[in-house]
Structures are given as C-alpha cells and as structure tokens.
Amino acid sequence: MPNPILSCSSWALAGLAFGSVVPAQWTSRGPSPASDCVAAAYDEARAVTVAVFRTGPLDVQTWEWNGTAWTHNAAAGSPGIVQDDGIALMYDPVGHRVLAVVAEGPGSNGGWLFAYGGQAWVGMAPAQPRPPGSNAIAAAFDTQRGVVVAYVNGQTWEWNGVGWTLAVASSLPGDLRRARMVYDPLQQHCLLIGGRPGSEPWLNAITWQWNGAAWTAGPASSLTQRVQHGATFDGVGGRPMRYGGSTEGMPLYQWFADSAVLDAGVWGDQVGVPTGAPMAMLGSHLAADLARGRVVLVGAETWELVRPTPASFARFGAGCAGLGGVPQLDLAAGRMAWLGHDLGLRVSTLGAAGFAAVAFGLSNTTYGGAALPAPLPGTVGCDLLVGLDVMQVALTSGGTAEFTLPVPVGTFAAGFEFFAQAAVPDPGNPLGLVVSHGVRIVVGTR
Fold first, then answer.
1. Which of 131, 157, 299, 411 satisfies CB 3.0 to 4.6 Å to 281 for a cystine?
2. Alpha-carbon span 298 to 49, nearest angstrom
C-alpha cells in the first residue's frame, strides 16, 4: 500500500508549496558566558548544547544553551582541570549522555573520562592500559561501532565503555597536536582535521580517516591548515564542518572567521560568514543542534548557522521498560530527513526480541478522535505518543533493527512534520511489549 506520510499527495495536503532554497546564514545570539570555551557538544537526549568554559586558572564552569539562553549548572562540578585542546566533548548515544575525554586527568594520568547527563560530571578512572597523559587530545564517538576514538601523542586509542585499547601504536598521521576529530556517520569513519605535526614549522593540510582498523590520507586542503579551530559533523546538513582557527605563527600569526564543509571528498567554503567580529571567535567550538536544525558556534560570542528549511530530529515523551530495559529510537548512520534522500531510523531493542516495529503518525496530539499521549491498555507505564497512520516492521540483528524511509526530492516537502515511536516484544511488561520515547521529524534541505 502507498505510504500516506511520504506520498506526494500527503505533502501537498500539508499545505506546502514549491519554492527556492535559501542559503544558510550565520546569526549572532549575543555574548557567551565567558570568552574561553574549551569544548562543546550537543546533548541529543536533552536537546541542549553543553559547553565547558575556563573562567580562571583552576575554575571550569559548565553551561547549557537551549537555543534561547545560556544556563549555568553550578552543581555540575568540573571534568578535570582542562587546558585548551586538552579536552574533547561528544555525545554518547549508547549511554545517552555527554562524555568528556581529558588528555591529562587527576594525578597527571591520561585517559580519564567524565560523564554528564544534566546533573554533575562523574569521573571514570580507567585501569591500565590507557592513553598517556598529554596537553592535547582529539577524540570522537564512533556511533557505528559504539566506541570512543582518541588520538593523543601520535597514538590511536579506543574505549568500549569498559576499558581502553591501543589500536595503533605508531603509524600515520604522526604526532599531530591541536587537531580536531569528528565522526562522520554517513561515511562511517572518524576524521582528524588540522593540527600541527609536533614542533614542525608547518600545519597539517591532510584530513586523515580512521575506519576502526587503519588510518588513510583523505583530502588535502589549505582550508584545514589550522589549529584552535572548531569542528563537528553537521548532522543537520549531513557534512563535516570546520570553523575559524589560526595559523599559530606558521608562517604568519593569522586568525580566521571562515567556515568550510567537506562535501563529496572535497573541502569547500561555507556560504554565510559572521562579519564584524572575527576576533571574538578565537578558540571556537561547534555543535550540531538536531532538534532545532542549526549549528551552534561557541566562542566569546554565540552564533548559529540558520537554515530557512532545516531538517530536524527531536525526542519527546518517555518509553517504558521491560526485561531488556527501555527501547531507544535514534537516527541510523546520521541520515536525517533530507529532500531526495533516505531517512534512517534505528531501534535498539536491548533484549532478545527478534523484531521491532515503528509507528509513524501525522500527529502527536490526537489519533482517531482521542487525545495523545494515551495509556496503552494492558501495559504498565506505557503510553502511545504518536498516531498509528503507518506501521513498519523489521527483523533485529545484534540487538538493533533499522528502518529506511525515502523522502521526496521536491522542495514542496520541506518543512513537513511527522512523528514516530518504536515498539519491541518484551515479556517483562504484561502486554508482552514495550515502547520507546517519541521523535518529531521535520523534512528539510541540507
């Protein structure tokens, strides 16, 4: 049967019209809480950007940006005493939390991790072996393999949630300092961007790629010959992105206020550059806000890359638990609902279920004349959060099930909104099934 959510007639009935795509532009949101931002990451579970600022030699503060205002979490404590380039923040979709990987933790030991879920930073002291202590680290979370990848002192380490493993003792790309690492879920590899090779008088122009087994040299570009730059995977636009940075005196001390994206293996200039305040962007960091469809730039000032018709993906409501826990509904391989592309969804079943189902609805407030959310009869603590307009079922493999939905090419579909919720068999709940939280999905341009 035709899919009423993704058919052309449904897009038209939504009242959407054909039109041209307007380029994204940077927009100032005012001063940041402090001038020295040392790291930032988007917390998908709570839909806020988490940033760590250094406000003194021994003073580190945690702030959260909700798209409107900054809020200081005075009870958060500190993810160690951090230096510039000595910490990397990332979102952990397995633990549904923000992780801080610190180059040199308490006692000058390397490999420290801190977890943050909105309350306080919790330190996780790793056992040996672990990365060496250092004053710089680049790290990212590989969502395909469920591991943290860290590059420190020319060594590649991976953390699987329990312990560290030295993946490559000595290999290319060498001892790159002050580089940035991002994970590209579409290409399923980590990217090491920029940096300076040890004490050499030049900057790295090669974007190195780590696939979990080996490093390979990717595209070379003068646009990535930077240190103190911001980098992220722009999950809204589906591309790795670099902002600003400096040459650090190699050969001339120059600061930049430009942005670039890696598209089809080539680095190119990003349309829309903040003007009038390039010096305010020193040591800036980037985070992709998936719920609001924007990229957040945090430096001395806060900026946002605003798209008129962005794709977005945001959680709402809560799931219910069975013997296998609460099922999770997330993006698969970072595939947002972009025009002309396939939306990818992944259900983590957390148990031995052989299949999972996803319900797609045109509303999360009413269905069949009844108000939503509504308790699911025969269950304990389970609510129906979305309409049951379309159902899809997929077999599980390795505890997960993946779903693919094609999105039309025409710009008439941009801005179309729908909702989804997953269900998984589980004998731990009386009805024999449990459900996930809901997600709000908006179709947009890249």
1. 299
2. 10
Residue 153 CB neighbours (<10 A): 18
Q: Which of 93, 94, 110 is nearest to 43 (CA)?
A: 93
Portions of the chain given CATH number 2.120.10.80: 25-306
CATH topology (fold) of 25-306: Neuraminidase (2.120.10)
pTM: 0.86
| Fold of the 312-442 domain | S-adenosyl-L-methionine-dependent methyltransferases (2.20.130)
C-alpha–C-alpha distance, residues 428 and 425, integer Å:
9
Over residues 101-148, the pLDDT tens digits come to: 998 766 666 778 999 999 999 998 777 888 888 878 999 999 989 999
- How far is residue 104 from each of residues 79, 112, 135, 256, 356, measured CA to CA in Å? 11, 7, 7, 28, 42
CA atoms 43, 46, 51, 56: torsion sign = negative
Please write the tens of the pLDDT for every residue from 260-289: 899 888 998 765 554 444 344 667 899 999
**What backbone phi and psi angles, to 5 degrees, belong to 312?**
-150, 160
Could you tell me where in the chain the CATH 2.20.130 domains are found?
A: 312-442
User: How many whole angstroms from its chain centre is CA 364?
Assistant: 25
Which residue matches tokens 């040299």?
217
